[in-house]
Amino acid sequence: MMNWSTLGEKQPVATKMLQNSIQKNRIAHAYLFHGPRGTGKREASLLFAMRYFCENPQENEEPCGECVACKRIQSGNHPDVHWIKPDGQSIKKEQIEFLQKEFTYSSFESDSKIYIVEEADKMTVNAANRLLKFLEEPSRRTLAILLTEQVDALLDTILSRCQRIHFYPLAQEAYLQQLRNEGLSEANARLASALRFDLVEAKEIQSDEWFANGRKIVVQLMDRIVQSNEESYIYLHQTWMQHFDGRLQHEKGLDLLLVWLKDLVYLHLDEKEQLVFIDQMDRLEQQQAHLPLHRIKAAIYEVLQTKRRLAMHVHPTLAMEQLILKMER
């Protein structure tokens, strides 16, 4: 189970600040956890919520992890802990209004409520203004935790009402070792680290069949692109488009594709210690023999452009068709 001790190994400053606020009973009404993806922001918000409602807190402000409240928070089913995530491209005003309505009702199991806003920088202007009013006029004992990778994208008025906790980029080797210690295979540990997954996300891919199949599809698509025949276009429609559904899933597939292409670059540069797909060495070497470095770099550029097109609401099928055509040149 995650705990403050484990989090403190990679984020000592943030962990100490949060533990101190609990120990001294100086919990702010709003926090902003900001820093790159995979640095522990979501883990910290879970731990903070667990300790906030824990029925049997341990030494050093550790949640017990065994009481009803801790288990319900870990499973995402606590009635007084609300998670807000982007609905498609953004967090919309209606989501914040619904949250405000929920918070007018009496708490089910305590006199407190917590709401956690993931990717807070993706709030629309109207949603941000609604949240600002909520921060200015909290009802009952209300605690807000905002998570973001792009702190500059938030309104200054929101920033001024939050206690900011900075989560620093992790040393890759130290994080890799932590993932190994958590029981991840070497291949999954390297992939989770490359994709900047936090510990919770990283552990999930161990048993995530959708992710495992997506990984295979990306590798098989690259096989067909290297062959430079019409099979890649057919494979795109018959397999890729069936598996990756919607913009967010396509972005995950493209992120996997970027990692594969970067591995091909590492092979060209004879930096095998940097490889992520270490269990696919034979396949990587076969593809490297057919793809010159300049073509791989061009492919990386096109994948990044495709991600930008998806963010601009270009239809995923059209965006992926354009990508395949350009990568086969």
TrEMBL record:
Residues 251-328 form the DNA polymerase III delta subunit C-terminal domain. InterPro entries: DNA_pol_HolB, DNA_pol_III_delta_C, DNA_Rep/Repair_Clamp_Loader, P-loop_NTPase. Keywords: DNA replication, DNA-directed DNA polymerase, Nucleotidyltransferase, Transferase. Pfam families: DNA_pol3_delta2, DNApol3-delta_C. Its EC number is 2.7.7.7. One of its GO terms (cellular component) is DNA polymerase III complex. GO terms for molecular function: 3'-5' exonuclease activity; DNA binding; DNA-directed DNA polymerase activity. GO terms for biological process: DNA-templated DNA replication. Gene3D superfamilies: P-loop containing nucleotide triphosphate hydrolases. It catalyses: DNA(n) + a 2'-deoxyribonucleoside 5'-triphosphate = DNA(n+1) + diphosphate. It is an enzyme of class 2 (transferase). NCBIfam families: holB (TIGR00678), PRK08058.1 (NF005972). PANTHER family: DNA POLYMERASE III SUBUNIT DELTA, REPLICATION FACTOR C / DNA POLYMERASE III GAMMA-TAU SUBUNIT. This is DNA polymerase III subunit delta'. It comes from Allobacillus salarius.
